[in-house]
Amino acid sequence: MADKPTSGEILGVPYNFERPNFSSMLSSYWQPGEGMLVEKPFGVGYTLNLANWRSWVVVLVAGALLWQQEQGSSEESQDAEDEPVEVIVDDDN
């Protein structure tokens, strides 16, 4: 049986299933001079290049949106606790 390739490209999307080590992980996420997206060190697709300033903008925007969502859900739960609850019992026995 032929060995399957552990890395390559399918329909323009890169994949890599070779076991990564620490130095390859570090060099994959930090590539000065490259674009915002770089090939993942393990798996399928692309990841953010943390040496590019645009990636940090994406991380900050995602963090701000997550924080805003968490603040909104905690305010909604507080509002729901303050409102009275109406219970209707239908006894048709």
UniProtKB/TrEMBL annotation:
DUF5808 domain sequence ranges: 36-56
Database matches in InterPro entries: DUF5808
Region annotation Disordered: where it falls in the sequence: 71-93
Pfam families from the UniProt entry: DUF5808 (PF19124)
Chain intervals with Acidic residues compositional bias: 76-93
Name of the protein: DUF5808 domain-containing protein
Organism: Natronorubrum sulfidifaciens JCM 14089
Upper classification of the organism: Archaea, Methanobacteriati, Methanobacteriota, Stenosarchaea group, Halobacteria
